[in-house]
Amino acid sequence: MACFDIPSSRITTLECFGRIFDALGFATVIIGGEGQVMHVSHLAEQHLGAGLVIKSGTLAATDAGSDKDLQAILGEHISGAKRERDALGLRRIERRPLILRIVELTPDMRPIFDEAKFVAALVDPDVCPEPSPALLQQIFGLTKREAHVALKLMCGDTLQEMAEQTGVSVGTVRTQAKAVFAKTGTNRQAELVGILTRLAVISHEPRPAEPTKS
Q1: HTH luxR-type domain location, by residue (predicted)?
Q2: In which band, very low, low, confident or very high, does the pLDDT at 211 lie, cut at 50, 70 and 90?
Q3: CB 59 within 8 A of CB 52
Q4: Which CATH class is domain 133-208?
Q5: Which of 12, 62, 101, 116 is most buried, taking the most CB atoms under 10 A from its CB?
Q6: Is the dihedral of CA 180, 182, 187, 192 positive or negative?
Q7: What three-state secondary structure class fits 51?
Q8: Looking at per-residue confidence, does 34 or 213 come out higher?
Q9: Rg (Cα) of the chain, in Å, rounded?
């Protein structure tokens, strides 16, 4: 089935949905009623071999313990049995666990998804889902430098780290941060992070988070 009637490229319906999910920043694997992988989005492909693999056409975790839990969750969804959980963290080497959540498609949605039964949505906690700096400037009237500071605050950078990265004083960065809070109508970093995270959904520009400090 072509998506949106594009006969030249013959994009399938699932490929089309995969591209939409990617554009919104959601890494997804679409799965059929018997557990078969029907489509892996481009963002989800980036996790294959590093948290996830596809074995014999089905989804599996690279870590044995995580895979045991994953197969139990998938089995509950496939069989229709009472589900104990819908999400888990898939352990990875020297990285935070990859978060996976199963979202079941309702019966009226399945025909749209070529009779797929559920979607595995992936969240990488090592990637910061930044909204576009230009978007922040347009919405809140931030300067280019203030937008940069806002995104750094969102991803957990300290004022000291920002000062070192940009070659300015901590006092200058603090002044810029105060302007960000004032223009966004927030008082705490947690509030700012909440707003910017929601905006990231409509302006997907992720970047890897800074390495965890020991």
Answers
A1: 139-196
A2: very low
A3: yes
A4: mainly alpha
A5: 116
A6: negative
A7: coil
A8: 34
A9: 20
User: Is pLDDT of 210 > 50?
Assistant: no
At which residue do the structure tokens 């960065």 appear?
Answer: 173
**190: DSSP letter:** H
**Angstrom distance (rounded) from CA 46 to CA 95:** 14
What are the structure tokens assigned to 139, written together? 């919405």
- CATH topology (fold) of 13-125: Beta-Lactamase (3.30.450)
Instruction: Show the tokens assigned to 134.
Output: 């230009």
According to the model, what pLDDT value does residue 9 have? 44
Residue found under tokens 């888990």: 88
Shared fold status for 13-125 and 133-208: no
Listed by start position, the domains of the chain span 13-125, 133-208
For the chain, the average pLDDT equals 87
Residue 28 structure tokens = 């997804």
